Amino acid sequence: MNFVTSWSGGKDSCYAMMQAVQQGFIPKVLLNMMNENGKVSRSHGLPLSILNQQAQKMGLPLEGIPATWGDYEVKFIAVLKMLKAKYDLEAAVFGDIDLQPHKDWEDKVCEAASLKAILPLWQQDRIVLVNQMIENGIKTMIVSCNTQMGESYLGKILTKELAQELLKKGIDPCGENGEFHTLVINCPLFSEAIELPEFATKTYNEYCFVVWEE
């Protein structure tokens, strides 16, 4: 079964894709929804250059689609239909864990595009998942987080110890509720690790971000 991955650049979409490949599905293309100017991703604030590096290390094409929140769904469905025809797709893979409204939306847009929505991580235990990701060779860096965590966490590599530290602080170790986002630096799907540009950090509207140099 050929599939598109809804690729955020972070750990959950990466591990979902790895699980789908292990189950015998065939990855054909990555899809990322960008902000209006098409320069950074909507979900994780990653520059297109970094997303393209990840795609290159996997030997897969990346579709980066600029969208506003207002036309996001319409554009998502349209690009799914286009990719289905172009790559003979049967499914779309998502990295959501247990947010029901997200699954409902993914089922809805996939149905509109005549694709099967696959969520390999659905309703798995959060800390178990993080540990599995690390054990399976996914190396990720925290690139944004809420102010409860603070800027000191930005740039840190997610380890089992760090996940336990977050858990003790009452922070979801998967960041499923948006507590933090990650960037995959290396994983078994990559031919080699990506190279990261220099970055600074800033806090804006109760959220801390890595700011990448062009």
Automatic annotation (TrEMBL):
Q: Which organism is it from?
A: Flavobacterium rhamnosiphilum
Q: What class of enzyme is it?
A: ligase
EC number(s) recorded for this UniProt protein: 6.3.1.14
- Can the keyword NADP be found in this entry's annotation? no
Q: Name one Pfam family in it.
A: Diphthami_syn_2
Spell out the Gene3D superfamilies in the cross-references: HUPs, putative n-type atp pyrophosphatase, domain 2
Q: Which part of the chain is the Diphthamide synthase domain?
A: 3-209
* Keyword terms of this UniProt record: Ligase
GO annotation terms (biological process): protein histidyl modification to diphthamide
Which InterPro entries does the record match to this protein?
Diphthami_syn_dom, DPH6/MJ0570, Rossmann-like_a/b/a_fold
Q: Which GO terms describe its molecular function?
A: diphthine-ammonia ligase activity
Task: List the protein's name.
Answer: Diphthine--ammonia ligase
